[in-house]
What does this fold into?
Amino acid sequence: MNRLILSLSLLAAAAAPDAAAQISFAGYSHSVVTESPAASTGLDAVYVLYDAAGVTVTYTSPSGNTSAVWQQYGSLGGGFAEPVEGLVRSGASTSLTLPAGDRGYIIEDGDKRYYFYIIDYSQHPYEVTAIAPSAEQDCGQVSLDVTGQAAAINYYTINGRSVELDRGITLSYATMTLDDSSKTYRVDQADVNFSHLSPVIHAPAPLCATEFVLEGDRFLAQWGMGESVTSTTMQPSAVEAYTSATQVSRDNSNETGAGNDGLGGSAPAEVEFYAAVTDAAVFTEWQFSTYPDFDDIQLRISDPVTTYTFREQGTTYVRFVCANDAGTCDYTGTVFTVSIGQSSLLCPNAFSPGASEGVNDEWKVSYSSIVEFECHIFNKLGVKMASLTDPSQGWDGRYNGKLVPAGVYYYVIKARGADDKKYNLSGDINIVNYR
It folds into this structure.
């Protein structure tokens, strides 16, 4: 065994990659396909012949050597190579008429070595007459029954390792993909490559009705003999969805917590939920729960596009689910977390309307998560100066369009927070002399 390993190491070290130009073929009916194998195989080239039997391969020594030595090997690798019989020599050229079948060759040309493998394609025919969806399917992948054969084509490295040669068989069909710009699904083509075919092949499940087209293989295509079979139309069962949640922005200078990261913050928080679905999705539903595992679903909305206003303090978990009409395939989207904070309500006691525009010239409460609000402002005689129905509103110090005199005014507030906290507030408002 040590002797074998040493022999292979010496052969690899002496390889002559540029020797490929010295190999030629004659007597073939279709062009010879040349493959460049990985360096780890130890091979300089792999040649695919439509029918190897009777084809002549010739090696011409670049140094003019008239005694190049040929060896051949099979699945055991170059360490078990045997001398080649039937060589025909003509000066620096040595020719061999190939037998049928696959085999590897080693040519020793002085201190140079050239390693190549010949594949006889006629021994690995592509003979596929039909494909059809299998009786049993699942949601993640489609299964197709193949009538015919396109077995794996393997060659052997100089160390006897089997390497599969990709036949380049392509399965094409329609499916749906998400358009990033419009966030909707559109029909697109899917292509799946197979290095060889089994009696049943698998591919990602289509998301729309489609036929399946199987084309092969790449060698036949190169020889102008490519073949194609088409299945009957298959209706989709797999479903998929794209979901998003966007909070409607609110820019109230006196509201705290409305600009927090994530969804929610200060109530009322209005969130737009959007879902785009593929063709087979018949059942659609947004689910709302106070439990992250959705053990208890408090609200269900069937419209894929909906807007919901969160008015209660706490955390709500929202997800989108969809399924086909038979309920055999479903999809569950990302869980969105909406957190509404506790309420707060603070009232200032002074402002200075008319003194400096844009600086403390409006009386406003500071608030968070206030969902009901009513405020009335009076002068010392009990005359109502203003009424506010939203905490984002303020009083500009005017009554009937004119600034009121400096002095003390009074507010009365009734409000309720998202946490159901009740506010009954009253107090002074001091208008600072603006003259």
